[in-house]
Design a protein that fits this description.
The chain has 89 residues and is an alpha+beta fold. The chain contains 1 helix and 4 strands, in the order βββαβ.
């Protein structure tokens, strides 16, 4: 059985795509972000940079990073029901 089931697309941004799924190991709804390959760096380097930046943020407006995996398996974080950030740009 796959860890994440019921995967549904939520949105797309400059760095990647975001999906909602059910985490079968932890029994909770999560958001999964798949990082796009950008520039001459490896996809793993992009993922590591984004995850470290996100994990360093300590504010109610930002979600916590639950895991980081430099493989074909995406990372997950809490699923937050909120408006798109696109309206702020």
């Amino acid at each position: 059985m796959h860890r994440h089931v019921g995967i549904t697309a939520l949105g797309e941004g400059g760095y990647g795509e975001v999906y909602e799924a059910w985490d079968t190991q932890l029994c909770r709804s999560v958001a999964i972000k798949c990082i796009k390959h950008v520039g001459g760096r490896s996809p793993g380097a992009d993922l590591m940079r984004e995850a470290r930046l996100a994990a360093s943020l300590r504010h109610a407006a930002f979600v916590k990073v639950y895991s980081l995996q430099v493989r074909s398996t995406p990372r997950s974080c809490p699923r937050i029901r909120a408006r798109s950030l696109a309206r702020w740009t």
